Amino acid sequence: MPKWPKRKDIEAVIREDAGAGDWSRGPGMAETVADRIKYDVCAEFIIYKRENNLNQRELAQKLEISEALVSKILRYQCTEFTIDRLLRYLEKLGIKYEFRRVA
């Protein structure tokens, strides 16, 4: 069984990669606070998937949604999702997401 990197290592890679890829216009292009929150929440699904050694189909089954929707989440294509919808999906995985006010 493959040994996955620790959560902090995965998070570091995700932060480094924030300027690349496609998240509607690219993760580095998140213009609104809501976009940034959606991006951060999508990253939680990637971390969960890797930590639990799941494939996309298994994650879709846990979330009770289609693989196509999971694919969008995992590729940061979140424009069709509301924040609360993404948070409901996280709750199905037993993940609590906390918002913090920044000065």
Task: Please report the total strand number as a whole number.
Answer: 0
- The gross shape turns out to be globular
* CATH topology title: 434 Repressor (Amino-terminal Domain)
Terminal CA distance: 44 Å
Compressed to H and E, one letter per element, the order equals HHHHH
Average pLDDT for all residues:
83
Radius of gyration: 13 Å
Low-confidence stretches: 19-25
CATH architecture: Orthogonal Bundle
Q: What number of domains?
A: 1
CATH class: Mainly Alpha
Question: Largest sheet at a glance?
Answer: none
What portion of the residues fall into strands of 2 or more residues? under 5%
Describe the structure.
With 103 residues, the protein is an all-alpha fold. It has a single domain (7-92), classed as 434 Repressor (Amino-terminal Domain) (Orthogonal Bundle). Helices cover 53% and strands 0% of the residues. The protein has 5 helices and no strands. Helix 2 packs parallel to helix 5 (83-92) and helix 3 crosses helix 4 (67-74).
Output the keywords.
mainly alpha, 5 helices, single chain, globular
